[in-house]
User: Fold this.
Amino acid sequence: MNTSRYWVIVASKNHVLRGVQARVAQANHGKAAPLKRMRVADGVLFYSPKVEFEGNEKLQAFTAIAHVVGEAVYPFDLRGGFIPYRRDVKYLPCNDLPIQPLIPDLTFIENKSSWGYLFRYGFFEIPKVDFDLIASQILKERVHA
Assistant:
């Protein structure tokens, strides 16, 4: 029986890329509680409404995919008084995937006309069927020799 769960973390693409580089996940501006809900082997998708946290350029795309590999949720000192909590994840090579074409097929989006509302939570669980649909399209194609 598959006991893995599947999550979406909402963050600007520039923040997602920092996480990819550090091989960690952060959620809801560094809060520990969301990360504590995750378990090793859980799937995580990162959705970016904007390109940059401080900017206005919309993106509205899934920008990363990962699996939880670390047991611990731990604080990390970014200096300047900001100490967010992190969790170690393994990112998979992927391409940005716009959400608009997927909305009709995503079961976790119940109200298709107000689809963006759910993403305001910043962190939420989704069904495996939706994770699999997004994963099938976001993952980079492997080149066979």
In short: The longest strand covers residues 58-75. The helical segments are 13-22, 32-36, 128-138.
